[in-house]
Amino acid sequence: MDRRRFLELASVAGVGIAGAPLLGRADATEIGAPHRPIAMEDDDYDGPLFVQIQAAGGWDPTMLCDPKPTLNRSYGEGDILTAGNLRYAPVAGAAALFDAHYQRTVFINGVDTSTNAHEAGRRHCASGRLGDGHPVLAAMIAGHAAPQRPMSFVSFGSYDRTSGLVAPTRNGNPDRLAELSHPDRIDPTDEAAGTYHTDTGHALIRLVRDKRNARAREHQSLPRFRHALDHLTTARLGSDGLTRLQEVLPEPSTTVLHRQAQLVVAAYKARVGVSGNLFHTNFDTHSNHDADHGARMTELCGLVKFLWDEAERQEVADRLVVLITSDFGRTPSYNGNAGKDHWSITSMIAMGAGIEGNRMVGVTDSGHNALELDPGTGAPASGGIRITPAHVHRSMRRVLGLHGSDVDAMFPIALDDDFDPLAG
Amino acid sequence: MLHRDATRRQRVQAVLALGLLTLPASACQDDSARDDAAEADDDDDESEGTGAPELGAPVACVDIDDYFLEQVWTPLLKQKCFACHNPAGAAKASDLVLQGTDYPGYLQVNRQTVENLARLEIDGTSLLLLKPSALVEHEGGAQIASEGPEWDALAELVERSKAPVHCVDDGDIRAFYADLALLDEAETTRKAVFLLAGRLPTALELAAVESAGWDGLDEVLDLVTHEEGFFARLIEIYNDVLHTDAYLVGDDAIDTVDSAKFPDVRWFDDLPEDQVAAALNLTNDAIAREPLMLIDWIVRNDEPFSHILTANYTLANPYSARSYGVAMDRFVDPNDAGEWIPIQFPDFPHAGLLTTSAFLNRYPTTDTNRNRERSRVLFDFFLATDVMRLAVRPVDITEVDDFNPTLYNPNCSVCHDNVDPIAGAFQGFDATGRYRPSGAGWFADMRPPGLGDLQIPFDQSDRALQWLTPWLVQDRRFAVAVVHTMFTGLTGQEPLTEPIDEAAPDYLQRIRAYEAQEHTFGEIADAFVASNYELRVVIKALVKTEWFRARGTDVPISYYRTSELLDMGTARVLTPELLHRRIIATTGIPWRKDGTSALLSADFYRFFYGGIDSASATQRLTEMNGVMANIADRMANEVACNVTAYDFGKPAADRLLLPLVEITDVPGDPHADLAIRANAVHLHQQLLGESLERDDIEIDRTVALFEALLADGRARMLDPVTPMPTMLTSRCQATVHPTSGVALPEGQQLTLDPDYTVRAWMGVITYLLGDQRFLYE
User: Fold this and answer.
1) Residue B411: band (very low, low, confident or very high) from pLDDT cuts 50, 70, 90
2) Closest by Cα among B346, B296, B287 to B318
3) Per-residue pLDDT tens over the stretch B618-669
């Protein structure tokens, strides 16, 4: 084949432009560069590692961050513990967590979810909006910051709607990540075994695919198709980075729940992830509340403590931001089965970088009713506002640097006041 | 927040702006007798012709929502009742608590509240009339006269509530779809046959469609939906709803069986030790699959699909039959796990799949839950109703201080009024699914067992669910639920839900899309009912809808229109199961690793590629992420490696991918150039379903890629220092059958690639296997 013919073909195929190969070897990165503008190595995201933790089923804040001994049979007034300015119920594992991290922790109590339905409450607390439509906050920051990362948003379940901002990643067999790190290698674990095509061949295939996708998108008017093409292109942009994940993934924890934290932290450390959505379940204790709910709270505290420990071990704790939410709260009184039913007043816990910690925000009365607050001072004030999940999410968006961003505009939070529960 | 009527005005203005009111007039649907109404619609259409109505002209159909808004709420309730009858008002404890305009969907909620009150009568007169006129005790005194326009308006509402009418503008619906470009008959056939049976249509089937059009497609689908591949898909589709395959693990399903009633449930324990494991697995799988196999059986035997909830039997194969104590002489082959028969348990009120132990245990209950979870999923799966969504609107639960709030407080009863009656229908089944009728009836502090106003007679309590399900399947929502399930199963998309946020900037667009889809699916549901619940009627209608066939638009579309079409057209990432089938259907070989399917094995990529285990992972991933992209790339590389030389080794007539070229065809020779181009056209058709002309730019691109790959490889073969070998790498050689591992006949073995054409075509096939059209549907 002569040079003119090759250039003609290459042009049609979208292959060879400046510096392209003629009849010899090509440098794959040289060919690839113009068409892969956001390769992982060029990704400069260095912002927060955001981890959202959902206590699915509806937790009882009076058994953790909004202690009410008169509403609980499992402890009395004298049993309430403190860490700095934080007061919390004496659930096992809580002291280890809050003694270590109270300086970076805010309890937001008296949050009005306005619902007693699980899914609606879960959505409200996880997205900041009672109705359908808003993504989980962890997906917002991933979609805003680095959607091209192959594990930008890792989700383990509960409310994890992404609203198309980012493709979620689900956990699988981590032993297979190695072979997925090198899809072009014949033997993924043996570089010497070679690749299925020459380096030029792989580059040609990628480039032609990109060209074809671009043309398809140009000629497509239906948003679903365009969206699918965009996602495929974006997914391929960052898919090289899995190699780095292998280097930082630790031995799996013997506690299955803790593996969620390990993967999310490792993905961030390897620059293949931005955020995670962890969840723990079985908080819906309509019977045998004290024993069952207490055990879940202990496991939850253990998970959060482990998350911080793992972030410190991976040297990313200074960028970790955590938001712990649930569906709603639980009734002030016990039902006939020693259980507690659904209660729309709940709490949320925020921790980490950018949050003015060692504070308790919001107030509930002895019956676990939310008191109205002066939006200027946060002090109880009749005729004031009630804290809603929207307040917390607006504040958290500020902490995460989302204010004024496209995603912030796409999913607006409408509030009539300026109350910011996470500002000091 | 926009006021509801302001929003309605916006909708009308939007419709006017689109010129849609110049299209044919409206039809009506009646909640209580939609079949009759549907017939009336046809008559209306014929009698009214196609003339454009004048603006402001009388509209024949009066929607119940419009009537309520215009004649009752705005002039009367809002003015005279709302001040007291609101959640914080003096009448907050009454049966009439109305919501304000800041309340999402407040008009519909208020209409429902008013209708509930309207059903209560004294001596044949509704309380809705007696109370405000103070003809019975009313703390607010007389607010309206006992005769006059206000009385008449309320009286008419009482009557209208008995047969509520909802108007649908057919012209508007048709206009919604007007500018869409759709798949033609052949393209629809390819898509439908693959999604239904996991294979490509045969030439004969395509010819039938070509000659007979859509009728031909119906005939093809009648056959396709009797194939084994279809039944596998049907089970997959309904497991995505029921998730009873969670029990396909160990002896989990066996543990769900009532061992007191069936003492032989672990019959295999008596077998020789080396036979126990296999028998246990087969028995467990049979019990786990009972609900799904019931669906399979009903469709396979052309029974009304409603039998999935009403069948007075369950299914067993020889292995589960042994657990249930069924005689083996009922089976042709007592060792054939694929032989299923209907059986009845003694003294057991079967109600289709609802009374299988797998279903009842997958959705367990507790002493306090009292079967409400079972009721919730029944609503969700089989009545197209998300009861949790009823509580989406804001409530103030801290205001709940009633005795038994789930019965009396509207904050709670909004859900419980729906959930509790059906929960009561499950009363004979305990927390672990065992049939233990109490004989004492249901809890007095819950709504009576039944469905809506229908109550289950007390003497039927022991068979409450069996008594109820024949009524339940007559609810139009059952038919709609089937349409929804099949739509989601085919497209991977959830049906649209009615938007509730009227202040949302895209509310008008979303409501138009919702109404169009609801109308289309409603028509299919009505046809389904009219066919006596023939599932194939649903399938054949769905694949012809715009929601299945849309591939673009005929004209450039505005931002407004784009918002309306957000959910139009299918662009799903294929599930692991579907991608596995597509690879086989198009290349003839599966993608296997270590003797198992790489995409279906949990040890490999099933979960990373978005698959489910029906237990902890129940939601399929619908967006491609970086990990999935790498799986797709590895698949493309490995499958192309395995299939290219293998295909070339076969006689040309037997090849699926490369029938029009030989490995000696290299560019530059006119005959070879033609062959290469023709085969590129064939590959686009075979792998991607694209029917392209030989001079299409995409064929140019593919041919160019082939030639570029060839040029690169041939140059490397001439490298004086490290020449590329002529021998294919061992994994890509054709020496054994890619699936069975059996050695290929010598004449079909291919190990050498002296002209680099095999590897160049391998690159082209890699390119196409990784294409968006291959990975998505």
Assistant:
1) low
2) B287
3) 888 888 888 899 999 999 999 999 999 999 999 999 999 999 999 999 999 9
Enter the pTM of the model: 0.77
Task: Kindly report the number of other CB atoms within 10 A of residue B776's CB atom.
Answer: 19
A194 shares contact with chain B (CB less than 8 Å): yes
The first and second tokens of residue A38, run together, are 């956001």
- Cross-chain residue pair A21–B712, CB shorter than 8 Å: yes
* Unique residue bearing structure tokens 């439509």: A133
The residues, any chain, with a CB within 8 Å of residue B732's CB and separated by 6 or more, are A196, B641, B642, B644, B645, B758, B759, B762
Terminal Cα distance for chain B, rounded: 39
Residues 6+ apart with CB under 8 A from B324: B257, B262, B264, B265, B316, B343, B345
Secondary-structure percent of chain A, ordered helix, strand, coil, rounded to 5: 40, 15, 45
- Measured between its terminal Cα atoms, the distance across chain A in Å is 71
Q: Which residues fall within 8 angstroms of residue B51, CB to CB, at 6 or more apart?
A: none
Confidence of residue B82 (pLDDT cuts 50, 70, 90): confident
Residue B711, min C-alpha distance to chain A (Å): 6
Residue A114 and residue A378 in contact, taking contact as beta carbons nearer than 8 Å: no
Question: For B165, phi and psi rounded to 5 degrees?
Answer: -110, 130
Output the six-digit token pair for A342. Answer: 């659904």
Q: Which of B39-48, B182-191, B705-714 has the lowest mean pLDDT?
A: B39-48
Asked whether residue B33 carries a pLDDT value surpassing 60, the answer given is no
Residue A208: pLDDT band (50, 70, 90) is: very high
CA distance B624 to chain A (A): 6
How far apart (Å, rounded) are the C-alpha atoms in residues B711 and A204? 12
Evaluate if residue A51 carries a pLDDT over 80: yes
Strand partners, B455: B450
pLDDT of residue B105: 58
Residue A110 belongs to what H/E stretch?
A: strand A105-112
pLDDT: which is higher, B371 or A393: A393
Which residues contact residue A261 at a Cβ distance below 8 angstroms, ignoring those fewer than 6 apart? A51, A276, A278, A303, A306, A307, A310
pLDDT digits (tens, 9 = 90+) for A80-112: 999 999 999 999 999 999 999 999 999 999 999
Poorest-pLDDT segment among A27-31, B81-85, B649-653: A27-31
Partner-chain residue, chosen from B497, B630, B704, that has the shortest CB–CB distance to A12: B704
Distance in angstroms (rounded) separating the CA atoms of residues B625 and B640: 22
Residue B612 makes CB contacts below 8 A (sequence gap 6+) with B240, B243, B618, B619, B620
Beta-sheet pairing, A168-169 with A153-155 = parallel
Instruction: Pick the residue from chain A with its C-alpha nearest to B620.
Output: A170
CA distance A340 to A343: 9
B527, B657, B538, B529: which is closest to B589 by C-alpha?
B657
B768 touches chain A (CB under 8 A): no
Residue ranges of alpha helices (H) inside A185-222 are: 199-218
Window A:38-77, CB contacts with B under 8 Å: none
The whole-angstrom separation of Cα B142 and Cα B154 is: 14
Two tokens, residue B325: 């104590």
> Which residues have a Cβ under 8 Å from the Cβ of B573 and sit 6 or more positions away?
A228, B492, B610, B621, B622, B623, B624, B628, B775, B776
Beta-bridge mates of residue B327: none
A359-369: average pLDDT: 96
Residue A282 tokens, joined:
């079985």
Q: Is the pLDDT of residue A3 over 50?
A: no
Cα–Cα nearest to A297, from A75, A84, A90 = A90
